[in-house]
Design brief:
CATH architecture of the largest domain: 2-Layer Sandwich
CATH class of the largest domain: Alpha Beta
CATH topology of the largest domain: D-amino Acid Aminotransferase, Chain A, domain 1
Helix content: 25-40%
Bound molecules: 2-(butylsulfanyl)adenosine
Largest sheet: 6 strands, antiparallel
């Protein structure tokens, strides 16, 4: 129940009707996508809900009574479909799907055999064949009247001009979905970009834009491009209209028949006998959504029996014998509010988009990287643009492009700043030909120092509790004191409570990530993370104590962690471990030549050169000197010296190369890998023929599959500790 009063219901329904009609008109008549599909579906759903609860508010012109959109197209001639093209009702959860299946079986008064198909994210097309010849092709329009796109459709290679095989009726309307295969779409966009033409935000927009082009308005070159785009389109059929007595009993048999006539049918369908089968189909395709050759936005579950189609019938909008299960959207529209430049620990200046917060693929997104100036230009986005944002699964959010049709003249071009936003130094490519711009103030740029300090505390380096992103910012860019406690990481191990105590920082808004402003004064809201009031007395906060203790404890950590913490380009944990165990001390590393360094297994020339260059810089050496003075040994106690690597550990995994994938109960990822090393094993991140054992736990994925393919020994997570002799 909505909890609405009848008069509220009336008002809300009217508002929803207007909005949906406006959106549908824009989409169907002008090919403009004003909101994401999921938002449109949500509006429709709310309207349906209200109309169900208050049938009296339903009006004749409600969009719930139509398929959506009008056929009021000025571009193409109207075509009245011989039989109405229905849309589909949607469900969004497995519960709703199973409820719908149960209700349909009750209405049919029998157990039903189901046909599950993927829902292609394209656009519907109805093709009329008379005596086996293609005579007309039309878009869906409002379901009753569509647009005549016959001439364009004739150029789509997979659509036969003449049906093959036998048994086709004199007149038949075959329905299907026109789409771009993902690879074809990528190719098309590359070509469009190469030719200086606009790129498409997604395959569906590209398909719709390509099919609904008018040849008359084009010059020779444009005509060639238009034909090229049409030739790249694909089609799969998903139904048949205007055929009173088909010679088969089931929809699945219709597909076999259509296929025998030369019509392209999808390989992705499956007949199941119950809800469990349909749910498994939904889940399987959800997981492998991106492995298909084209994009899908859901699954269509249909009653297979054609006789039951007739008996169950249709509402004015959709058949009662089919339903669309919609996956959560991976693409949404939002507004590009700003492009700001962030400077990271390596000084690279990265433009990133600040967007109106929007939920996509289950999380709220407000920022997305735009990588570099060239990418901003290539995407063609303007400040203030409505943009299409994509986030597939747990993949990083990506801006696909602007919705050009929604520009109203207020959008402005973005200009890459010439100075570092944090220290003002002139940004420039590090060397000629580099795409990236960098801040040259490596030693003191607060953004770079902040990034390096954060890196020092990170898990792969010194793993210091209490030294994360927020603390690193507080130490390097506080509001008070005017001179930050750290102007370079050299002083990190000299920090005392007295240095931390006065620190004041701005509070960031959790919604926007921007500094929070006091409503009355308009000044930034600040806080003091390192002092607290106990019994009216100011004392160091728990965070302050934690940080000082974390820094003190860190000094006795392994040498390799310090090598990582020095922020030397290319020196990550693997190289650092190899260097540490071969040389035993930073002094020995410092004394080694490039050749000696690169000869170490796991090091190589690039890393060796990077190390030597790093050690030549005065302020880098100063970091080492000051850390050493603060008590960092930079040496493995008892190491016998260069070349005499510490004996390999003689444990149950001695000499074995091991991959850990998924969760090992009772271990963190790092902990599990360390345990493997302690047991004498060598940890590798990828499975190959050289792998001896793959430990698989919850969440294991492709590595397990690969191990199975290669016939490598697989050990379950439950036996992890046992195998390691723990
Ligand atoms: S059957 C009478 N099957 O989705 C039922 N439709 O959102 C007609 N679509 O209008 C549709 N893949 O354009 C069906 N495997 C599939 C489909 C599919 C995509 C489209 C179709 C329909 C729309 C509804």
């Amino acid at each position: 129940m909505s909890g609405l009063t009848p008069s509220d219901a009336h008002a809300q329904a009217a508002e929803l009707r207007d909005r949906i009609t406006e959106l549908a008109d824009a989409y169907y008549a002008r090919n403009e996508l004003l909101v994401a599909d999921a938002d449109y579906d949500e509006l429709m759903r709310r309207l349906e809900e209200i109309e169900r609860e208050f049938p009296e508010v339903q009006s004749q012109d409600s969009p719930t009574q139509f398929v959506g959109g009008s056929a009021d197209s000025t571009l193409f001639d109207p075509v009245v479909h011989r039989e109405r093209l229905y849309s589909l009702d949607n469900v969004f959860t497995v519960e709703e799907l199973t409820q719908w299946m149960a209700k349909t079986e009750r209405d049919a008064d029998q157990a039903v055999q189901w046909l599950c198909e993927v829902k292609i994210d394209g656009l519907a097309l109805s093709m009329r064949y008379e005596n086996g010849l293609l005579v007309q092709a039309a878009t869906r329009g409002d379901g009753v009247t569509g647009e005549d796109v016959t001439e364009n459709v004739r150029l789509i290679p997979s659509i036969p001009q003449r049906l093959t095989g036998e048994g086709h009726p004199d007149v038949v309307e075959i329905r299907g979905e026109v789409f771009f295969r993902t690879a074809e779409f990528a190719d098309l966009n590359t070509r469009q970009a190469f030719l200086g033409e606009k790129t498409f935000a997604n395959p569906r927009n590209a398909a719709s834009g390509s099919l609904r082009q008018k040849a008359e308005s084009k010059n020779e070159r444009q005509l060639e491009l238009m034909q090229d785009r049409l030739k790249r389109l694909s089609l799969y059929v998903h139904g048949i209209g205007a055929w009173a007595h088909p010679p088969v009993a089931n929809q699945s048999e219709i597909y076999e028949l259509l296929s025998s006539w030369g019509m392209p049918t999808s390989p992705y369908w499956s007949v199941v006998l119950d809800a469990a089968g349909a749910v498994a189909y939904v889940e399987r395709n959800g997981e492998h959504r991106h492995d298909l050759e084209h994009e899908i936005d859901g699954v269509v579950v249909k009653v297979d029996s054609l006789e039951l189609h007739d008996r169950l019938g249709a509402t004015s909008r959709a058949p009662r014998w089919a339903i669309a299960y919609k996956y959560p959207p991976e693409q949404v529209n939002t507004v590009l509010l700003d492009i700001v430049v962030g400077v990271g620990r390596t000084g690279r200046a990265t433009p990133y988009a600040v967007m109106k917060p929007v939920t996509v693929a289950g999380s709220v997104v407000r920022q997305a990287t735009l990588h570099n100036k060239a990418v901003v230009v290539q995407k063609g986005v303007l400040l203030g643009d409505t943009i299409v944002l994509r986030k597939a699964g747990d993949v990083i959010p990506e801006i696909l492009g602007p919705v050009v049709e929604l520009r109203d003249g207020t959008q402005r071009e973005w200009v890459m700043p010439t100075g570092c936003p944090e220290c003002g130094a002139t940004l420039a490519p590090a060397k000629e030909g580099d795409i990236d711009f960098r801040c040259p103030n490596t030693e003191h740029c607060p953004a770079q120092v902040r990034g390096r300090v954060e890196h020092i505390g990170s898990r792969g380096a010194l793993d210091i509790e209490g030294l994360g992103e927020v603390t690193a910012a507080a130490l390097t860019q506080p509001i008070v004191p005017a001179t930050p406690p750290l102007t370079s990481e050299a002083g990190l191990f000299d920090l005392t409570i007295d240095d931390l105590f006065p620190i004041e920082v701005t509070v960031k808004d959790s919604e926007t990530g921007l500094a929070k402003l006091d409503e009355k004064t308009g000044q930034p809201v600040t806080q003091t993370p390192f002092r607290a009031t106990v019994k009216k007395e100011l004392v160091p906060s728990q965070d302050a104590l934690k940080l000082i203790k974390g820094l003190a404890d860190a000094k006795s950590k392994d040498l390799w962690r310090f090598l990582v913490a020095l922020n030397i380009r290319h020196v990550g944990p693997v190289a650092a471990r190899a260097l540490a165990s071969h040389f035993g001390s930073l002094t020995a590393i410092d004394a080694a030549t490039v050749d000696e360094l690169s000869a170490v297994d796991g090091v190589g020339a690039i890393i060796a050169l990077s190390l030597v260059e790093w050690l030549e810089v005065d302020w880098h050496r100063d970091i080492v000197t000051r850390w050493r003075a603060a008590g960092v040994p930079f040496a493995i106690p008892g190491h016998p010296g260069p070349g005499a690597a510490l004996e390999t550990i003689d444990g149950p995994l001695a000499g074995m190369t091991v991959v850990v994938t998924g969760t090992m109960p009772g271990f963190t990822r790092d902990g599990a890998e360390e345990a493997v090393r302690q047991a004498g094993g060598k940890v590798s991140s990828s499975v190959s023929k050289k792998t001896d054992i793959v430990f698989v736990g919850e969440g294991a994925g492709s590595k397990q599959t690969k191990a199975e393919e290669l016939g490598i020994r697989i050990v379950q997570a439950a036996d992890f500790a046992g195998t390691l002799g723990l």
